Amino acid sequence: MGFIGRMLTLFIFVMSLVFMTLAVMVFATHKSWKEEITSANGYQTQVKRLRLENDNLKLEIDSQKRTFAAEQMARAFSLGALQSKLTQLEAQIQQKDGQLAQLQTEVANKTTLASTTAQNEAKLQVEVEQQRELITKTREEADGLFLSVVALTDQLNQAKGIERSQSEINAALLRQYADLKLVADKLGFGPYTLVQEIPPAVDAKVLAVSEKDLIEISVGSDDGVHKGHTMEVYRGTNYLGKVVVLKTEGNKAIAKIIPEYRKAPIKKDDHVTTRLN
Fold first, then answer.
1. DSSP annotation of 233
2. Cβ 62 vs Cβ 125: under 8 Å
C-alpha cells in the first residue's frame, strides 16, 4: 500500500472514532419528554389530580353554601367563621388555578421542547447516515486509488524494464557503430559517402593492360560494379595502385589507373579487389 492509501485509511479510522463518540454523546444526553409527561408521576397525572382537587373544592363550596343558606337563620352566630372559611377556600382555589395554569404552561413548554428534541434527533440521525455514506464512498475511492497506484506501479516497472532493454540495445548499437566506423575509416568511407558509390566486395583479375593507363578487369555490372567505383590492385602482397571504373559490361569492366596511387606497373593477371589487405 502506498503513502496515499495509508493516509486515507488513517483518515477513515479517525472519522469513524469521531462519529462513534458523537453517537454515544447523543444517546447519553437523550431524554424522553413523552415519558416525563405521561409517567405515573408526570405532569398529566399532576394536572388531573389538581383538577380533581379543584372539582372537589368546588363541590365542597357548593355544599357549604347550601348548608349556609339552610342554616343562615339558625346559625347566624357562625356567619363570620363560615365567611372566613369561604375566603380561605376561594384563596386556595385561586392558588390551585394559578398552579394549574403554571403546570399547563410547563406542559406546553415541555411538549415544545420534546418536539424540538425529536426534530434534532431526527436531523442527527440523517447527518449520521450521510456521514456513513461519505465514509463508504471514501473507502471506495481509497480502494480505487489503491488499485490505480498498483496499476501505475506495474506500468512503471514495465517501463523500467523496457528502458533497461533499450539501454542494452543502444549500447550494442553503439558498439556496432564503432566497429562499422573503424571499418569505414579503414576503407576510406565517410558519413557523406553515397551507398551507390561504395563498390561491392569483389575479387577479380586484370585481363588486359593498354598503353593509356587503362586496364580490363574480370568483373562487371553483373557483379554490382558501376562507373565511379574504385578498386585496389595487388600482386601477391605488394600493393600496385588504385583504379577507377570508367565503363562496365555484364562480366567485365574498363578502369583507369589513378597516377597518384601508382606504386608499380600493373600487369595482366594482377589481383584486383575492393578489400584492403
1. E
2. no
For the segment 51-66, what is each residue's pLDDT rounded down to a tens digit?
Answer: 788 888 888 888 877 8
Tell me the HSE value of 134 on the side-chain side, using a 13 A CA sphere.
12
- The radius of gyration of the chain's CA atoms, rounded to the nearest angstrom, is 61
273: which strand partners?
Answer: 203, 232
b/e for 166-179, b at 16 or more Cβ within 10 A?
A: eeeeeeeeeeeeee
Give which of 29, 7, 15, 269 is closest to 128, Cα–Cα.
15
pLDDT one-digit tens code per residue, 136-183: 888 888 888 888 888 888 888 888 888 888 888 888 888 887 777 776
- Read off the pLDDT of residues 81-140 as tens digits, 9 standing for 90 and up: 778 888 888 888 889 888 988 888 888 888 888 888 888 888 888 888 898 888 888 888
Which grid cell is 246? 570508367
| Nearest-angstrom CA–CA distance, 35 and 41 | 10
Rounded CA-CA distance 238/241 in Å is 9
> Are the C-beta atoms of 208 and 191 separated by less than 8 Å?
no
| Residue with grid cell 600487369, as numbered in its chain | 267
Handedness of CA 260, 265, 269, 275 (dihedral sign): negative
Strand partners, 46: none
Report the C-alpha gap between 243 and 231 in whole angstroms. 5
The C-alpha atoms of residue 81 and residue 88 are separated, in whole angstroms, by 11
- CA 195 to chain CA mean position, Å: 54
Which residues 6+ apart lie within 8 Å of 125 measured at CB? none
Contacts of 270 (CB under 8 A, 6+ apart): 205, 206, 233, 234, 235, 240
Three-state DSSP class for residue 268: coil
Query: Tell me, what DSSP letter sits at residue 198?
Result: S
